[in-house]
Write a structure and sequence with these properties.
The structure holds two protein chains of two kinds. In chain A, 71% of the residues lie in helices and 3% in strands. Chain A is mainly alpha-helical. The N and C termini of chain A lie far apart (158 Å). Chain B has two helices and no strands. Chain B has one domain. The chains are: A mainly alpha, B mainly alpha.
C-alpha cells in the first residue's frame, strides 16, 4: 500500500515536470521574434504581389495589342497577293502535290527513274504554273518552289549521269542487209526503236566513234540508241553534213 | 525515513508545479496568431510565384509576336518588290 502511494506520487511528479518542459518549447521572446519577422515578410510579399498584379495587367494588354498588329500585318500581306483563303488553300494543296510527286520520284532506282523520265517534265510544268501565281511572291511559297526546282534539277542530273554511263541506253545489234534490211533509216523506223525513220541521225551521231559513213554499218555491231527526242542541233548538223557529202559523190 | 521521503517528493512536486505553472510562454491565442500568420505568408508566397510565372510567360509571348511581326513586315517589303518585278 505504501509502495503504491510512493509510485503514484513519483508518476504524478514526472507528469508535471514533463508538462512543464513542453510548455517551455517556445518562449515568449521566441514567439515575439517570429511574429515580428513574419509580419515584415507578409508586408513585403503583399507589396510585391500588388506590384506584380499591375505588371501582369500591363503585359496582358501589350500581348493583346501585338496580336492585333500581327493579324493586321498578315491580312495586309495576303491582300497584296490578291488571294482569298480558299485560293490559298488550293495553292497549298498544289504545292503539296508537287512535293509528293518529287518524293515519289526520288525514291526510285535509277533504272525506274529512267523508265519514268517523262514525269519530270510533268513536274516542271506544275512548278512553272505555281510560279506564275501571285502567291509565289510570298517568301514561304517562294522558298518552297526554289527547293522544288533544286530537287527536280537533281533528278535530271541523276538521269543525265545514268544516260551518259550507258546503263540506261537501249542498244540494237545490227543484222544483215540480206535478212534484216538493217540500215540507219530502217532501224530508226522500227517500232521498238523510234518508229520514225527521220530520227536516224540520232543513232548516227550517238555512234560516231564507230560509224564513219552513215551508209555503212556492219552486222553484229551493237549500236547505242539514244532516248527518243527531237533532233538536237548537233544531230541536224550531222545530217546536213551527210547529205552535203553525199551530193558531192 | 518515510517522512523524509514524503517531504522530498512533496518538494519536488512543488518545484515541478512552479516550472510548468509559472513559465512565461505564449498563450494559446498567441500561438494561434503565429500559425495564422505563417499560413498567410505561405499563401502570399504561392500567389507571388504564380504571378511571376504568368509574367514570364507573357513576356515570352510578346517577344514571339514581335519576331513574327518583324518577319511579316519584311515579307511585305519582299512581296512588294517581287510584284514590281513581275
Amino acid at each position: 500500500m505504501k509502495v503504491l502511494s510512493y509510485v503514484s506520487l513519483v508518476s504524478l511528479l514526472l507528469m508535471v515536470l514533463t508538462a512543464g518542459v513542453i510548455a517551455q518549447e517556445l518562449s515568449k521572446e521566441e514567439w515575439q521574434k517570429q511574429i515580428t519577422e513574419l509580419t515584415s515578410k507578409r508586408n513585403d510579399l503583399a507589396g510585391k504581389l500588388s506590384s506584380l498584379k499591375s505588371e501582369v495587367e500591363n503585359l496582358k494588354k501589350q500581348d493583346a495589342d501585338k496580336a492585333a498588329a500581327l493579324k493586321q500585318c498578315q491580312d495586309e500581306l495576303l491582300t497584296m497577293t490578291g488571294a482569298n483563303p480558299d485560293q490559298i488553300a488550293a495553292y497549298e494543296a498544289s504545292l503539296k502535290g508537287i512535293d509528293s510527286k518529287l518524293s515519289d520520284l526520288s525514291r526510285l532506282s535509277n533504272q525506274d527513274l529512267w523508265n519514268r523520265r517523262g514525269e519530270l517534265d510533268d513536274v516542271q510544268k506544275m512548278i512553272d504554273a505555281a510560279k506564275k501565281d501571285n502567291l509565289s511572291a510570298l517568301p514561304k511559297y517562294y522558298d518552297q518552289l526554289a527547293d522544288f526546282q533544286r530537287r527536280l534539277d537533281a533528278l535530271r542530273n541523276t538521269l543525265k549521269q545514268y544516260a551518259e554511263s550507258g546503263q540506261g541506253m537501249m542498244t540494237y545489234t545490227v543484222g544483215t542487209w540480206a535478212k534484216d534490211r538493217d540500215c540507219l533509216w530502217n532501224i530508226a523506223k522500227k517500232k521498238k526503236i523510234y518508229d520514225n525513220a527521220f530520227l536516224w541521225p540520232k543513232i548516227y551521231q550517238g555512234n560516231r566513234e564507230r560509224i564513219k559513213n552513215a551508209d555503212v554499218i556492219e552486222p553484229g555491231w551493237i549500236l547505242k540508241i539514244p532516248p527518243k527526242a527531237p533532233l538536237t542541233n548537233e544531230e541536224k548538223s550531222a545530217e546536213r553534213s551527210y547529205w552535203r557529202n553525199k551530193g558531192k559523190m | 525515513m518515510k517522512k523524509s521521503m514524503t517531504l522530498m517528493l512533496g518538494a519536488l512536486m512543488m518545484g515541478g508545479l512552479l516550472v510548468s505553472g509559472c513559465s512565461s510562454g505564449p498563450s494559446d491565442a498567441e500561438l494561434k496568431q503565429l500559425e495564422e500568420l505563417k499560413a498567410e505568408v505561405t499563401s502570399l508566397e504561392r500567389q507571388v510565384q504564380d504571378l511571376e510565372s504568368q509574367k514570364s510567360s507573357l513576356q515570352q509571348s510578346i517577344a514571339d509576336k514581335d519576331a513574327q511581326l518583324k518577319k511579316c513586315i519584311d515579307d511585305k517589303a519582299v512581296v512588294q518588290q517581287r510584284s514590281k518585278g513581275k
